[in-house]
Design a protein that fits this description.
Blueprint lengths: L1 H4 L6 E7 L17 E5 L7 E3 L8 E5 L6 E3 L9 E5 L19 E5 L11 H4 L5 E5 L18 E5 L3 H4 L1 H5 L7 E5 L5 E2 L11 E5 L6 E2 L12 E5 L18 E5 L2 H9 L11 E5 L12 H5 L5 E6 L2
Parallel strand pairs: 1-2, 1-17, 2-4, 3-5, 4-6, 6-7, 7-8, 8-9, 9-10, 10-12, 11-13, 12-14, 14-15, 15-16
Length: 311
């Protein structure tokens, strides 16, 4: 079925494959017009995918490709802007000479248990990279060359990863990171003093069941911080005794019932009186982040779109 559907590939611009584990990508087909490709819970025979097959590809998403091991590349790819690799348990390597994608703006890798290193040459080969999310990749120990490119402005990191411990040194003496999302803090107190870069304007702390205290010593130096999000921290009872940085103008508290109560009715009310925009969220169906937004990524405006499902 998939093979016959792909007979239209000469004019195909967007392709979303979901639930076809026993099929593969026809290697002899021409995908010269394809701009967006998502493979989700499909193509179990796929062990490697070559960027050279898709010369005009702008968005590539790979999710739950159970046997995918690597991305291959023989030539510089000038069109790729977004790359997501999520829950691919066998994935272990990027191109051996580095990922050469000078237009790449966003890189997300999540739950890649065997991946031991990030793409080589990131500083030179990925000059446009502005967003990088690295979540639950336990074998990753350091950033490429121990540094984060100055082009990266938005970052998401798992606290439990070895990468997080090297964050301070990787940013260098003059950090330019603007927005940071931290996930799965398993400590009772966060952040440690000097851990976060003073360049931050937005900080998000997410899914931390054991976190019960924010450490003011780790926040006071964030003089540029304007937005703070606390999401799904059910044990967090109150704000620091000294309050929050005065620069904060927007505070969101989602699924933190004890903290919400303290801010609305308790001692924390006075600590946030200076904040103009305060929001709370307690009851809403939340979709898991891993790839759940991928459908909108595939529906590009204009051109031909093909979505293949199997149930």
């Amino acid at each position: 079925m998939l093979m016959s559907a792909l007979s239209l590939e000469n004019s195909l611009e967007s392709l979303y494959i979901y639930g076809f584990p026993n099929t593969g990508i026809p290697v002899n087909s021409c995908f010269n017009f394809l701009e967006s490709l998502w493979i989700n819970m499909s193509c179990d025979s796929l062990k490697a995918i070559s960027l050279d097959m898709f010369p005009k590809l702008s968005t590539l998403g790979l999710r739950k490709c159970r046997n995918l091991q690597m991305i291959l590349q023989g030539h510089t790819h000038h069109h790729l802007k977004s790359l997501k690799i999520i829950v691919c348990p066998q994935f272990e390597s990027f191109p051996s000479n580095g990922l050469s994608a000078p237009s790449l703006e966003s890189l997300r890798i999540e739950k890649l248990e065997k991946l031991t290193s990030l793409p080589g040459g990131m500083h030179d080969e990925l000059p446009c990279l502005t967003r990088m999310d690295i979540l639950e990749c336990p074998q990753l120990e350091m950033f490429y060359n121990g540094r984060i490119s100055s082009s990266v402005k938005l970052m998401g990191l798992s606290y439990r990863s070895k990468l997080f411990a090297s964050l301070r040194g990787a940013l260098g003496p003059n950090p330019t990171l603007d927005k940071l999302s931290v996930y799965n803090v398993d400590a009772e107190s966060f952040p440690d003093e000097g851990l976060l870069p003073p360049s931050l304007t937005s900080l998000s702390i997410n899914f931390c069941p054991n976190l019960n205290r924010l450490d003011y010593k780790g926040l006071w130096h964030l003089s540029s911080l304007k937005e703070l999000l606390l999401d799904s921290c059910p044990s967090l009872q109150c704000l620091p005794e000294d309050g929050l940085p005065k620069s904060i103008s927007k505070l969101n508290i989602w699924y933190c019932p004890m903290l919400k109560l303290s801010c609305q009715e308790g001692d924390d009310r006075a600590k946030i009186a200076h904040i103009e925009d305060i929001g709370y969220m307690t009851m809403m169906l939340k979709l898991k982040s891993s790839g759940i937004h991928s459908m909108k990524d595939t529906l590009s405006a204009g051109g031909m779109v093909m979505i293949l499902f199997f149930f």
